[in-house]
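Severity: low
Component: inverse-folding endpoint
Summary: output formatting inconsistent between runs
Steps to reproduce: submit the following structure tokens with default settings.
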């Protein structure tokens, strides 16, 4: 029995739909609901983050999935908790590391349960599943376009939000696509998710509106002016094109479709060419640091991170005690590189365990999903896109932005990964 007694399947289904609605609101609103002022934190906290965690925990209790959710990624939770406890011994108790450790565990747990719910509702209907995810990002795109047009200078938007009790001290961007996440760099990396999903749906359904959606997300990434985001997108598109060529799935229609995208990009270049030019110039200067304060900041962050890593190589400083060091050094709660932050927080041993858990999860899903190759090659193709995207983020993008721990990147990717896991396994253990 559940904590609240038995509930029927119809009620569980209604609860599942409600949870996915809450997930959609959480992902769509992004950083806009930052209305909770908490002492010790520079920016307000998002009320939606508390709502999503509470909703999913209640769902797990009602449907007897609490132990199921804890068991699924138990090794990850143990690693995070162990690292925090080590940091507690090494540095003493601090509220921020404790808060971030709880937050990370709750975020991973919630995303995992959300992915399970996604599978239980849609099962093997991959088109409906991807449409659910894509609709969220299309709404984000629409809201972000409104923000971009209404507030060409982000500082004016931050001031506008503050009038309604939304406290956020973001960087002063000019004519950049900050989105509901209030950060163009994070947005550009995240926008690659709906980009490859819409490309997949266009290839699977031949519906032209998916091609238009792909084009709009490409333009939005250019408008972000994010060097790392634009390069991430280009790499991902190159991989998708290469995979299609290798699988001999480049048809006349595909060539025509790419032609339409390039024609539209050329036709609308006046709207994003300035952002693209600025991003290109900043990309050229990234290795010389010529007049590029952002690149210099990342260079100093990397140097400081390496010094910390060599001081605490085995077990790190403890999760997320790194924030105490970096706030004293640069006034920010982490390093710019997610990989470096992981090594400094967890050290070589716990980071290696992280990698083992992640690789095992990928291998188990990969082996199981290959059984569908002859029946439905589309799911294998989509999973390939997903893995390539994650790989590009790990190797490249996360070196410039602390993306891996950013909740609006982490949550949807764990949710999608969990859906693939249960799709491949057929939820045999559920």
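Observed output (run 2 of 3):
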């Amino acid at each position: 029995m559940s904590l609240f007694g038995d509930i029927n399947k119809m009620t569980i289904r209604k609860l599942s739909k409600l949870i996915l609605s809450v997930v959609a609101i959480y992902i769509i609103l992004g950083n806009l609901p930052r209305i909770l002022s908490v002492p010790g934190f520079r920016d307000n906290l998002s009320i939606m983050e508390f709502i999503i965690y509470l909703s999913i925990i209640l769902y797990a209790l009602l449907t007897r999935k609490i132990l199921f959710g804890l068991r699924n990624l138990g090794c990850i939770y143990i690693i995070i908790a162990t690292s925090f406890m080590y940091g507690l011994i090494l540095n003493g108790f601090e509220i921020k590391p404790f808060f971030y450790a709880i937050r990370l565990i709750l975020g991973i747990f919630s995303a995992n349960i959300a992915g399970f719910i996604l599978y239980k509702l849609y099962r093997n209907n991959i088109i409906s599943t991807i449409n659910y995810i894509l609709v969220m990002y299309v709404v984000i795109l629409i809201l972000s376009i409104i923000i971009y047009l209404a507030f060409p200078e982000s500082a004016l938007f931050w001031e506008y939000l503050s009038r309604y009790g939304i406290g956020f001290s973001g960087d002063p961007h000019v004519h950049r696509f900050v989105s509901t996440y209030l950060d163009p760099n994070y947005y550009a990396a995240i926008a690659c998710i709906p980009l490859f999903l819409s490309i997949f749906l266009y290839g699977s359904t031949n519906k032209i509106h998916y091609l238009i959606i792909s084009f709009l997300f490409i333009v939005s990434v250019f408008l972000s002016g994010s060097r790392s985001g634009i390069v991430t997108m280009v790499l991902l598109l190159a991989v998708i094109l290469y995979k299609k060529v290798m699988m001999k799935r480049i048809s006349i229609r595909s060539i025509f479709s790419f032609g339409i995208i390039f024609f539209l990009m050329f036709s609308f270049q006046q709207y994003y060419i300035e952002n693209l030019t600025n991003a290109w110039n900043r990309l050229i200067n990234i290795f010389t640091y010529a007049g590029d304060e952002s690149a210099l900041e990342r260079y100093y962050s990397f140097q400081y991170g390496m010094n910390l890593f060599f001081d605490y190589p085995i077990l790190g400083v403890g999760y997320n005690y790194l924030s105490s060091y970096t706030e004293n050094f640069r006034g920010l709660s982490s390093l710019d590189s997610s990989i470096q932050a992981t090594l400094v927080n967890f050290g070589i041993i716990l980071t290696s365990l992280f990698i083992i858990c992640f690789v095992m999860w990928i291998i188990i899903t990969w082996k199981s999903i290959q059984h569908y190759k002859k029946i439905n090659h589309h799911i294998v193709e989509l999973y390939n896109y997903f893995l390539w995207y994650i790989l590009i983020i790990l190797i490249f993008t996360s070196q410039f932005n602390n993306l891996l721990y950013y909740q609006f990147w982490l949550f949807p990717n764990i949710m999608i990964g969990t859906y693939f896991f249960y799709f491949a396994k057929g939820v045999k253990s559920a």
